[in-house]
Design goal:
Layout lengths: L1 H12 L2 H9 L16 E4 L17 E4 L12 E2 L6 E2 L5 H14 L12 H11 L16 H4 L1 H13 L1 H9 L1
Antiparallel strand pairs: 1-2, 3-4
Length: 174
């Protein structure tokens, strides 16, 4: 009972865009998978009249396989089962990023479906590829502007000229 009240309070604090998203694409149960990543079977004792022809038959536990919902991930392109044509994602990458930012700010990012814009994926990509900025690796230099590339040599020439300045002044005085 208290869990339901907590969920209601959480839903009241979410922005309308997130509420609409979760209404259209409810979160799936991810904790029901076993260690190998396969969906886990959960036993339940609830049966429907369609399960057995005899309604007076004692209820027997049936197994329900928790798997991803039938609706495709709205963040990924998917293939239509009948026509075989590919459909674009429902949400563009920009809108995915907006939803992830809102969900992260409200602490419900883990309820979103998988997206490359998620924090976990960004962290994994950063670990795999690093910064990917030219010149940040070992022995690499950033190209820079022409004045930046020649600054060291110009400063060295200016320093040498300043060190030789007293001799030049003496030469001009004579």
């Amino acid at each position: 009972m208290t869990a339901q009240i907590d969920y209601v309070r959480l839903a009241q604090t979410l922005p309308p865009r997130l509420l609409r998203f979760f209404a259209r694409y409810p979160p799936t149960v991810r904790s029901a998978t076993n260690q190998q990543g396969a969906p886990a079977a959960i036993e339940t004792s609830s049966t429907t009249p369609f399960d057995s022809p005899d309604a007076n038959q004692p209820e027997s536990p049936m197994k329900i396989l928790l798997a991803p919902s039938d609706s495709p991930n709205p963040f990924k392109p998917h293939k239509h089962p009948e026509t075989g044509r590919w459909h674009d994602p429902v949400y563009s990458l920009r809108r995915q990023a907006d939803l992830v930012k809102m969900a992260k700010a409200n602490g419900v990012e883990e309820l979103l479906p998988y997206t490359i814009k998620g924090s976990d994926e960004a962290r994994k990509r950063r670990e795999d590829h690093g910064l990917r900025i030219k010149g940040t690796g070992v022995g690499q230099r950033v190209k820079g502007k022409a004045w930046e590339r020649t600054m060291k040599s110009r400063l060295a020439q200016r320093k040498q000229a300043m060190l030789g300045m007293p001799a030049m002044v003496q030469q001009w005085k004579q």
